Amino acid sequence: MESSVCPFCHLSVPSSELQWHANSHFEDEDKEANDMELGNQIQIASSSGSTDVVSISSLIGLQTRSNFYHVKDGLISLLRNCLELEARHNSSVTILSGYVDHFQSLPSVDVGWGCGWRNIQMLSSHLIAHRKEARKVLFGESGFVPDIAFLQRWLEIAWESGFDPPGAQHFNCKIYGTNHRIGTTECASLFRSFGLRARVVDFGPKESELLYLSVPGSTFGQPVKQRNAVRVSGPMDKYVHRQQGLIKGRHFCHSLHNGKSDNAKGKSEGPQVLIDWVWNYFSDKGLTISGSSQVVVSDRAPLYFQHNGHSRTIIGIQVKHQKNGANQFNLLILDPSDVSTTDGTVALERSLKTNVGWQKLIKRGVHTLKKPQYQLCYIDPGIASGEELNELKTINSIFFEL
Length: 402
What we know:
The chain is α+β, with helices and mostly antiparallel strands and 402 residues long. It has 14 helices and 13 strands. α2 (28-48) runs antiparallel to α3 (53-62), α4 (75-87) runs parallel beside α12 and α7 packs across α9 (184-192).
């Protein structure tokens, strides 16, 4: 595919997309006008001390669709084709999430701080495409993924509505128009404010268990216990708060919806604990793979994947059965700020269509999981209301020892 350089941002784009891409730069003036109007609405809402129906209605009417490079055939469809070709030459099974758009951090917009927002956008694109109940509640039933500025305002509305008070306090309830980094708890708070059942899972060493919200080593189906824990929320979650030092609070832990994993301490060690959890999440425990179905698209949503300094989106997992009987796992990941390429999504699309080099852009083996702590956010089906919605205002998590 021939490519051309955009005369405005100097990015390399397919020649067939150059006119569309260049024209998108002229939308900036309209976006600036919308941002100014949004700022006025935020100031009005802030002066009243609360979020009301009028300010939310204004936000719904003003919000703009986030710009991203649209892959005609869909990244998941292209990836599935490559994985099926690969499976002909090895004994592997892969489970993927459904449709996901890749939202890339842009050099002049959010490089260095926007990965959290981009992952929220990727997860939102899946929910809007695949879950009818989510489409009806997300972003005022707009049917599209808003840009970062409007996601920031939606998060402020979540805080104003009482979701994650410690996180709101950390940011002084203000994040619109800033380049503050966010983490898993902000992702969970935003989605929970729409009634979505966003859950948080922590993975880390036993000696750091007091940094987590949940019961260390808890297994599915066991009674929930109460314990003291450091209240963690805010940018990069516990990593920032560990340095600043927060007061301790009391929390309860939630168990996984329907108990999707039979993992327990001692069955596997280190990063394999996280890998096993992801496999059980996507396989939904009861999923069976026939000999002719080595690549399966599940009904599971992608995972928001956080570690110290960065976050990405897990869109699936692959297992290869080795001749020695061992299993080799690969996480399949979309990175909003992959520094290995200069043209991001375009390069990813090209590599998938030509079946050349896509593995290094998407696959991540167990050996790459070198961080001491990780955190995931996943979203269960259905919409919460009433007392359940009120309970979602407190962010809790499940803990697994690495």
